[in-house]
Design a protein that fits this description.
six-stranded mixed β-sheet, alpha/beta, six-stranded parallel β-sheet, 42% helix, 355 residues, 12 helices
């Protein structure tokens, strides 16, 4: 029930009209609800020690006044900046870009802003500088998309004193980790091609030192060995369609090549171009499988068989884990937080020639 003056009227300061020239503040909410400013602060931060009736009175006062808490007010009340840091490398690629989009969306839903730093180089000094900048801005926690092993080492050396979640890398200090299950994805891709009757599978790997590329390479080799198939030497690309095209032309010259697994879809796209240009039909002569399931994969000619990585889930899960760490509710990591992957079979893979 709204308090009233002695004559039964509502005091003038309680009317929204009186705030036409100024924005209502927390003190106004406290007076209207008949509570202390500290109680209003507790309601803003969902403190459990507020009675339901009191909470509703405060919320009703906010609605009546048109009060919107400023970020600085929230920060003073909670001791937090409500700002998170995100460090990314090679952010123009589909995977990191999709992860950052999901992180920003999940952070906004949770009432946080994200300060993102996209780095073109991944040397030690640059990583340390990025961490120092986020620390100076008062980030409550940091998410680092760290696909290269040496980036993980640089992060470990910074000794960041705020909660940290790392994507696509493993730090030896037990830092929380979220990553797609690259080993399982590569195994599924290789087994799929072997199951179609191909004697072996050629592999175009990503750059050495990138965690996902190394995991896919190792899993491809292990799967071929387990099947008793020949394990040919891998070719190493740089994630780009240009490198896939150049290496695809080399493979196209070998008539014994009937199956190719590329470590990402962009390189697979270059392989498709090279095979078409050299007259090798897909999938009649050569089957091709990519990785990531970029939005264009279903519209290539032919539509690309690929391993789908749920980048949105990686971003959302990492944000949720970071917030739990900030709140002190996350349990110590027992193992890597692997996000499952799926094989999406389309028309670029088919039975081996003659099968």
């Amino acid at each position: 029930m709204t308090p009233s003056a002695a004559d039964g009227s509502v005091p003038k300061w309680r009317s929204r009209r009186n705030f036409a020239g100024s924005r209502p503040v927390m003190d106004d909410v406290a007076r209207l609800a008949g509570v202390s400013k500290q109680t209003v602060s507790r309601v803003l931060n969902d403190h459990p020690a507020v009675r339901p009736a009191t909470r509703e009175a405060v919320l009703e006062a906010m609605r009546s006044l048109g009060y919107r808490p400023s970020r600085s007010a929230r920060s003073l009340a909670s001791g937090r900046t409500r700002m998170l840091g995100a460090i990314s490398f090679d952010a123009a690629r589909y995977g990191p870009a999709a992860i950052l989009t999901a992180i920003n969306a999940a952070a906004q839903d949770a009432g946080y802003l994200v300060s993102s730093i996209a780095l073109d180089t991944a040397d030690h000094a640059t990583v340390v500088e990025a961490v120092d900048r986020l620390s100076a801005e008062g980030a409550d926690g940091v998410i680092a998309i760290a696909p290269q092993r040496w980036v993980g080492q640089a992060l470990a050396d910074t000794r960041l004193d705020t909660p940290l979640v790392v994507l696509e890398n493993a730090l030896d200090d037990g830092t929380w980790l979220v990553t797609g299950d690259s080993r399982t994805g590569a195994r599924k891709a290789t087994e799929h091609l072997l199951g179609l009757g191909h004697g072996t599978v050629r592999h175009i790997a990503g750059p050495s030192g990138w965690t996902s590329a190394d995991h896919r390479l190792e899993s491809w080799q292990a799967t071929l060995k387990a099947a008793g198939a020949e394990v040919p030497a891998p070719l190493v690309g740089d994630w780009s369609a240009d490198s896939g095209y150049a290496l695809g032309r080399l493979l196209a010259r070998d008539p014994d090549v009937t199956a190719i697994f590329a470590s990402n879809d962009q390189m697979a796209l270059g392989v498709l171009h090279a095979l078409h240009e050299t007259g090798r039909r897909v999938p009649d002569d050569v089957s091709v499988v990519g990785y990531d399931d970029i939005p264009e994969a279903a519209h290539l000619l032919p539509p690309l068989t690929t391993v789908r990585t749920d980048f949105a889930e990686i971003g959302t899960r990492s944000l949720r884990l970071l917030l739990n760490r900030i709140d002190g509710t996350a349990e110590p990591p027992q193992a890597d937080s692997l996000v499952p992957v799926d094989l999406v079979v389309r028309h670029s893979s088919g039975p081996a020639p003659g099968r």
